[in-house]
Every structure is written in C-alpha cells, then in structure tokens.
Amino acid sequence: MADQCCASSCGTQGTLDDPRWRRVLWIALGLNAAMFAAEIVAGVMAHSRSLQADALDFLGDAANYAISLGVSGLAVQWRARSALLKGLTILPFGLGVLAWAVWGLVHGSSPDPFAMGFVGFVALLVNLSVALMLFRYRTGDANMRSVWICSRNDAINNVLVIAAGLAVLWSGSGIPDLLVAFIMAALGISGGWQIVRQAAGELRQEAGSPNLPRMQGE
C-alpha cells in the first residue's frame, strides 16, 4: 500500500518546487480524498469489507500527497509530526476494517458483488489516471518514483477487489470479499505502524534525547 512504499520518501523540497509536479499532486490529492469518501460509504452500504479496505488505501494516499505538499519546506520535526499523525490516523481505520472482516467471518457476510465490481472499476480508473499523470516522473528522484509506484500498486489492489466481486457472484459466498479485506487491512496496519515507528524515531533523533522510550522492534 501507499503507506509502506511512500513512508520514507515524500517531502523532497527540490522535487516539490516543480509547479507541474505540484499540480499533479494536487489533482491526485483531490481524487484520492473523493474516492475515500465515496468508497467508504459504498463499502458500508454494499456490506463489502474489501471496498472498505480499499477506501483505507485511498485515505493513506490522500494523506501522503497532503504531507508532501504541505510540510516539505518545514523543519524535520514538523515533517515527522505530520507523518506521525498520518500513521496514527491510518492505524485505527485499518484495525476497524480488520475487526469488521472478522465479524463478517464469524457471523456471515453477503456483500453486493455488483456494487463491488462497479465501485472497484471506478477506483481502478482513478488510480490508472493518477498513475498515467505520474508516469513522466517514474525515473525522477526517490520521491517522484515512489509516488508513481504507489499509484501503480493501488491499481493492482483495485483489480483484487473486482476479482473478489466476480468470485462472490460466481460462488454466492462472501469469503472472497473477506479474504481480500484481510490482506488489504493487514497491509494498511503494517504500513501505518511503520510510519509511526519511523516518525517517532526521527523525533527522538531530532530532539537528541536518549532517555525517550524506544518502540519495540527498532
């Protein structure tokens, strides 16, 4: 997910000085924010956990673009604090989708395969459009390349949602929807935790205080 592949490479000042690059990021931010709102509502109405998990992915991308645009010229501490806020926002969403998927596994799930296919297809078009806009920057610096790779990988996630919808339609079971939701929620939680851990480490390093508690796994 975007939270993993963009966690450490966004915010390069030289890159963001390019007005064309900034314009693409603004468009990508608007599209991802709109798709998050639309897909989370559609996921709840269609009882689709995979759509809800994909909405989480759009949220992570929107936060990534916003941070890239908003704090690139600020001090390291402010960039780290913004990243920490991003991770702490993504984590509860990921845990919520995971818990909702477990609930569906225990109590049964009957997602609407047609809604899954339609919304998944719209999400695929959005991510492909963003990927095409970013294609010219795929060989740029780490920031440019990582954002393009994230959009490309997001399109793959949308294909998984569409495939899950077809599998639900064919099998009459909600299990494919739940399996995709588990995978995407797990990736979201992992990515959010990585961002929190890295941001906390950067804040400790910037503060220069070895007495602050270290987080497990660092």
> Largest sheet, if any?
none
Low-confidence stretches: 7-14, 210-218
The overall number of domains is 1
Which percent range describes the beta-strand content? under 5%
Order of helices and strands: HHHHHHHH
- Structural class given helices, strands, pairing? mainly alpha
Q: Helical stretch count?
A: 8
Provide the helix percentage.
Answer: over 70%
Query: In oligomeric terms, what are we looking at?
Result: single chain
Question: What can you see in these coordinates?
Answer:
The chain contains eight helices and no strands. By secondary structure, the protein is mostly helical. The protein has one domain (2-207). Helix 3 (19-45) packs antiparallel against helix 4 (49-70), helix 4 packs parallel to helix 8 and helix 6 (113-134) runs antiparallel to helix 7.
Topology summary:
Elements: H1 2-5, H2 13-16, H3 19-45, H4 49-70, H5 76-107, H6 113-134, H7 142-171, H8 175-207
Helix pairs in contact: 3-4, 3-6, 4-5, 4-7, 4-8, 5-8, 6-7, 7-8
What distinguishing features does this structure have?
218 residues; mainly alpha; single chain
Quick overview of this protein structure:
The chain is 80% helix and 0% strand. The C terminus is likely disordered. The protein has 218 residues and is mostly helical.
